[in-house]
Amino acid sequence: MIRRLYDWTLSLAESPYALWALAAVAFMESSFFPIPPDLLMIPMILATPRRAFLIAGVALVSSVLGGLFGYAIGALAYDTLGAPVLMALGKEAYFEQFTTRYNEWGLWVVLTAGVTPFPYKVITILSGATGLNLPVFILTSIVARGLRFFVVAWLLWKFGAPIRDFIEKRLGLMFTLFIILLFGSFYLVRFL
Question: By the 8 A CB rule, do 158 and 56 touch?
C-alpha cells in the first residue's frame, strides 16, 4: 500500500497542478501523511529549474501551515484521547514531566525534526499536546523547513540531475550530522 501511495505521489509531479499537489502533500506530511514533499519537489525542480525557489517556497508555506494543523491535532486530541488513557494507567504525572522537558528543549526538537529525516508530524502533534509556545513553534518551523526545502532547491538549481542521488540518499544524513555537531558545540560551550 505504501508503495502505491509513493508511486501516486510521484506521479503528481507531472500533473499540470503539480504546485497545488505539492502544497497539499507538504501540508498533509506535516500532520499525518507518510510521504515527504521532497518526492514531488525533486522532479518538479529538475523539470523546471528556474522555478526551484518558488517550488521550495510553496513547500515551506504549506508545510508550516500543515505543522499548525498537526499542532492543533495534538492540542485538541490530547484532552479527548491522550489524557484519559494516561489517567487510566496512572501515568499522567509522567506526561507532566515529559511536557516540562519537551518545552525546555522544544525549539531544538522542532528544529531537528524539521531538517532531518525524523517524521516532522510527530513533533508537530507533540508540540500541540505539550503546549509548546506557539510563536516559538512557528518561527522554528519556518527556519527548519525553510532550510530543508531551500537547500534542496538550491542544490538542484545549481547542480541539476547529478546531485539527485546525493539528495535522496545522503542529505538527510548530512542534516542529522549538522544537528549533532550543533548540539555538541552548544554542549561544549556550556559545560567547558
Answer: no
